[in-house]
């Protein structure tokens, strides 16, 4: 259930410090002069009439453009729900029209906002301290080891946890306490060092709520958040239980087939359902200090704390709140959260500057496939902002005198698994930065919105197409990471020369080509041992081709990749594990052939190269968790 974070395979996995760290830029011969923001686009005044025009007409146009089954949307303004609409179908197979008043949607990660509200309620009562070691609130068997982690770290996704893509508590009926005890991730970073979106971290925060309040997490949120706000149809429940007696929409894959109802064991991170009407009330309360219908519904201070930025890597990029993040920074910020499950995408954004907010829920992947950065949900929120609160990013300009070499290198997402095939995300969610030689940077990668980036100020660059801003983060006098405006939920950390995913892909591709040459009989075999050696190398090549083919299939079918990763399918590990075993045995056989002098002149070069290619593939597979190691 990613927030905004995801790239190709990362979508299968789909988004700092206290006090905040101010990122310093890398040294340069001459810093670029700060550039003035681009001239703002004229805004359409937001009124009940223009809001209804947006929900009735613009959202319908976007639904047709993106090809999703259905979308429901609501807009609030100055404490009132001023426009609501539903377009398309709640269930394609049944032809059931989507009803904005009746149908419920899975919230996915939007539920994290509810969990944060519950944590902040206890903190306001003095029963929790956000700066205290979280272990102070946990039973001994559930306590974390290693550096101190606080509730502040959990709520801002800065605890340093590795990504966990396996379904937490996938066994139905697994209680929350067992989920947080048995699925503790490794630490990739020190607490507060970087943002790295973590479902586990929010699940743990919800477990703290349960432990300190003395009532089940779901019940505490109902008592302190949903009931006071009048969110009568919102609850933390498993989707199958909701569907049994309530009108829950069907989630659809890109081909229109039902996605099914996943069991979500890490309940506080995403196992909630809601309606657009209830989300309107939630947004109204956030915008009015927790008040709804003239009454103080949320505990004092909760709404204000959720709308503040509490962690960020750079003052010119977006940052994290408590259970929220900035969709957009600047003079007119947007604040909220999004959520993604297979076949459903949700998101809300409030604009305090307009005293307004929008919530949208889409019950299907786009016809073009699931990409949570450019899907219909994001298009609706973006269109709302562009229409009623347009804002341009700062513009940069080339600086031919600047020395930009300090920024060059390879950077990998901080939302990364510590082991297993989920490490494959790094192959796709990474960026490479080069000095273009003309006073600009060239940035390439799956999530790079443009190739050419122009200096704005020291260490800050704007995409030439105006779609994103990036800032370089320094640690101990060296460039260590990249923060982007588009995604506050994670950063890109710098790798060494040998840790570049691009280099690894080149090595793996070259190794595959070399290994494939053993499939072509260019010379007759000698004795039986050399024949066995060729058979082993041929088998290695076939196993490697199978592993590569399944990986390519996973990249082109993200829903399938999501299933493989979440369920720990052997599809991503068995072929490469077989490749590694065969490569090792082949290398031994080739060595014996060389020592015994059984190889003819051509084979003395060919077969050792093929054996080395097999070992290179095995090593690359091991780095990215595709080899099931015995330790």
Keywords:
8-stranded antiparallel barrel; 3 domains; disordered N terminus; Lipocalin; Beta-lactamase; 16% strand; 7-stranded antiparallel sheet; globular; single chain; 631 residues; alpha+beta
Give a quick precis of the structure:
This protein is α+β, with helices and mostly antiparallel strands and about 625 residues long. The protein has 17 helices and 20 strands.
Which helices and strands occur, and which strands form pairs?
Blueprint: H1 48-66, E1 70-77, E2 80-91, E3 96-97, E4 105-106, H2 111-124, H3 151-155, H4 176-182, H5 199-213, H6 217-229, E5 235-236, H7 239-243, H8 267-270, E6 272-274, H9 276-287, E7 291-292, E8 295-296, H10 302-307, E9 325-328, E10 334-341, E11 344-351, E12 356-362, H11 376-388, E13 409-413, H12 425-428, E14 430-435, E15 441-445, E16 452-457, E17 460-463, E18 469-475, E19 478-484, E20 492-494, H13 501-516, H14 528-556, H15 558-567, H16 574-596, H17 601-623
Antiparallel strand pairs: 1-2, 1-12, 2-3, 4-6, 5-6, 7-8, 9-10, 10-11, 11-12, 13-14, 13-20, 14-15, 15-16, 16-17, 17-18, 18-19, 19-20
Helix pairs in contact: 1-11, 2-5, 2-6, 13-17, 14-15, 14-16, 14-17, 16-17
The level 1 CATH classification of the largest domain is Alpha Beta
| Biggest sheet record | 8 strands, antiparallel, barrel
Count of helical segments? 17
| DSSP helix fraction | 25-40%
Using DSSP, what is the number of strands?
20
What form results from the Cα inertia axes? globular
Structural class: alpha+beta
